[in-house]
Each structure stands twice: as C-alpha cells, then as structure tokens.
Amino acid sequence: MKEFDFSYLEQRYGIQVRFVEETDAEFIVELRTDSKLSRFIHATDDSVEKQREWIREYKKREAAGKESYFLYAKDGVAFGVSKINDIQSDRPSVGSWVCQKGLPFELPVLSLIIVYEFVFEQLKFDCLYFNIMKQNKKVIKTNLMVGAEQISEDDLEYYYVLRKEIFFEKKDYVLKLLNPSVN
Fold it and tell me: Cα(42)–Cα(53) distance, rounded to whole angstroms?
C-alpha cells in the first residue's frame, strides 16, 4: 500500500475532503440516482442499504490500498464524490465523479483538481487514465482545460490520459481563473 499524508484530505481550496463513510450512503444514492446527474455514469441501485453494503466492501479495498473514494463538502455541506481505481496498478483511473446540480462552477472543477493532485502528489503517479461518455460535453471540456489528452475512443466514450507535468502546467492557470478563496 502506498503511504500518503492523510492530513492532505482535510481542506483544499476551501473545500473539505475526506474518504467516503457508510453514513454517506444516502447522499451518494441521491447523487447517483438523480436522472440528470446519472446520465453519464454507471447505474446505481436506489437502495441506501445496498449502498452501505457497497461502502463496507469498498472500505476493505481502501484499507488494502486499491481504491480511494472521496466526498467533497463546502462549509460542511456535501456536494460531490469521486473515486480513484486501480491504485496498485501502473494505470490508476479516476471515475465516479459526480456533483450536485446548481453549484457554482468552481466547486466541481476544484474537486476534480483535488483528486488529480492527490493522484500525482500523494500517490506519486506520473499519469492517470479515465474515460468520458461522448455526450458528457461539460466534463470533457473541464478535463481538456486541465490538460487531459484523448488517446482513443469507441462508439460511446473517449479515453484520456492526464500527465503529471501537463496537469501542473495547466493547474495554476485554471486556479487563477477560478480564484478560489483558499489556495
């Protein structure tokens, strides 16, 4: 298991960050079963108890250093989640990124920057991988803004790589545009 600084997850850019817990099951189900938000992610059962069971199993994978599933909050109010998969491989991937509707634009973008920083700064990877459904234009645009490079596609999705050096070149510019209250 890779070692990292857990205090890193307390607060970044005015956003509180922590690992998902069983008590987050209802929030996650609300996010992942919302018809508008779930258009571009894998289907989730609407059972809060099944989500709690999934989180219990996930916590085992987290403890083994295989996955990290984050919850993001502003002023103590949860607004989104994202997950890092394949941490023990040489091709970590980020996914399950979903945030509530109606947020100020900077909050979802900052949550994305936080998870990417975590992959590069704490987990010490040089690249990360992800796929985005072709219809998910906002997420595609956001990822291109932080330096993602399309490497392939199929009928439904684009596949991307984000290289550490490119991300850090783009990140400062993006942060200046967003002007987060806490740097």
Answer: 17
Full 3-state SS string of 96-140: EEEECCCCCCHHHHHHHHHHHHHHHHHCCCCEEEEEEECCCHHHH
- Hey, where are the domains in the chain? 7-126
pLDDT in tens, 75-111: 889 999 999 999 988 889 988 888 888 899 899 999 9
CATH T-level topology, domain 7-126: Aminopeptidase (3.40.630)
Output the pTM of the full model: 0.87
Q: How far is CA 31 from CA 10, 25, 140, in A?
A: 22, 10, 20
Question: Residue 35, Cβ neighbours under 10 Å: how many?
Answer: 6
